[in-house]
Amino acid sequence: MPVIEVEHLMKDFMIAKRETGFLGAVKSLVKREHIKKEAVKDISFSINEGEMVGYIGPNGAGKSTTIKMLTGILVPTSGSVKVNGIIPYENRQENAKNIGVVFG
Ligand SMILES: Nc1ncnc2c1ncn2[C@@H]1O[C@H](COP(=O)(O)OP(=O)(O)OP(=O)(O)O)[C@@H](O)[C@H]1O
Ligand SMILES: [Mg+2]
After folding, report:
1. Ligand 1: which residue has its CA nearest to atom 12?
2. What residues does ligand 1 touch, defined as CB less than 6 Å away?
3. Number of separate helices (H) and strands (E) present in the chain
4. Domain-by-domain residue ranges, the chain?
5. Which atom of ligand 1 is nearest to the CA of 68?
6. Contact, 38 vs 10, CB < 8 A?
7. Is there a contact between 88 and 69 (Cβ–Cβ < 8 Å)?
8. Which residue's alpha carbon is at the smallest distance from atom 26 of ligand 1?
9. Which of 38, 45, 79, 99 is 20 to 30 Å apart from 24, CA to CA?
10. Contacts of residue 33, Cβ cutoff 8 Å, sequence gap at least 6
11. What is the pLDDT along the chain (104 residues), one digit of tens a residue?
């Protein structure tokens, strides 16, 4: 069984669209429009015990968002994550006993 298993993982963020100027600010109070940001779009991989891996990509590619889902800080929009047999976002504290994570 892999230590980390990720299947069709997705994370969308809904971002409030900002209108410029005073009139825009007033408009935002009444009706705020949101745009969908697909931060992680259908990622699948598995990592076995003893493997040493890197996860690379340009700024904003979704690396940190992926790691946050592996730690249980963020809940995926869809897809599945399993770390040591634990679903991180369902059992964040139990998962935290087995992992280490550092954010720059
Ligand atoms: N909490 C959030 N709300 C809205 N958008 C977000 C949020 N977190 C990340 N994003 C957006 O999702 C995308 C992926 O961000 P992420 O931080 O995962 O990228 P990254 O690969 O870690 O980038 P970097 O190399 O700069 O650390 C970016 O467009 C980012 O702006
Ligand atoms: Mg990052």
Report:
1. 39
2. 13, 15, 37, 39, 57, 59-65
3. 3, 3
4. 4-11+39-96
5. 18
6. yes
7. yes
8. 59
9. 38
10. 16, 17
11. 899 999 999 999 999 888 888 888 888 888 888 899 999 999 999 999 999 999 999 999 999 999 999 999 999 999 999 999 999 999 999 999 999 999 88
Q: Match 């139990």 to its residue by tokens.
A: 94
CA of 71 to the centre of ligand 2 (A): 14
CATH topology of domain 4-11+39-96: Rossmann fold (3.40.50)
| CA–CA dist 79, 69 (Å, integer) | 11
83: amino acid identity, one letter: V
Whether 100 and 84 have beta carbons less than 8 Å apart is answered as no
User: What's the burial of 76, exposed, middle or buried (CB within 10 Å: 0-12/13-18/19+)?
Assistant: buried
Alpha carbon distance 81, 66 (integer Å): 10
